[in-house]
Structures are given as C-alpha cells and as structure tokens.
Amino acid sequence: MSDTTRRIAGGGYATVDGLAMPLVGNPKYRAATVTRESLTGMDSVHGYSEKPQPGMIGFQCRDMLGVGITAMQDWTNVTVELRLNNGKTVTGTGMWLTTAVEVNSADATFDLAFEGDNVVVEE
C-alpha cells in the first residue's frame, strides 16, 4: 500500500464549466487580493497605495481532437477548477479568459489564463 501523505506537487486536474481539460502542466493560481505600491516623495517614504488585484487560475493544455480552440475565445463567466496533488482545490467562479489561445503545434500545447474576483482555495 502506498503512502502519499508527503506528496506536495506533480499532477492535477483542471476543468472549465465541468469540461475536463487535457492538463499538460504549469498549473498556477492567485487568490483575489490586493497589490501595494510604495509612495515616496523627495523627503521620505510617505506610505503606500492599495488596489484590488483579480484572482487568477492558469495552466497549460494539450490540443487534441475534441478540444474546441476557437470556442475558447468566448469563455466568460465560467467556473474554473484545479485539483492539485497536494490536496488543494482551487475554484474560480465568474471568470473570463485573458489569453489569446496560441497553439504550439510542435508539441500541441497552449496556455490558458483566467481572471476574476472570486477565487477560493480549499486547503
């Protein structure tokens, strides 16, 4: 019997609106948060500004028969889910595709990146 309690990286699964994506790798995510920028003057550091930062879920897929590349460009208001080997599930709702789908025909891969204001990480 194998023990996977120390497995923290490696494979995973990705879906978009319940459609299983042929995940190649590079799954990444950012929970919706803020960005901060230091504000300085000629005399000292005055403080910082804070702006909202959208959540993000991205991954690399394989272009295979049955994967509709052109239809992906219309993906808005979708639910994106990543299930990772470390046991975390990352779910984004109301997300939109931010990348132009560009297929590398040498290895049939393409990158997808989604952004939205509701990304939740179940840990």
UniProtKB/TrEMBL annotation:
One Pfam family assigned to this protein is Tail_tube
Task: Kindly provide the name given to this protein in its UniProt entry.
Answer: Phage tail protein
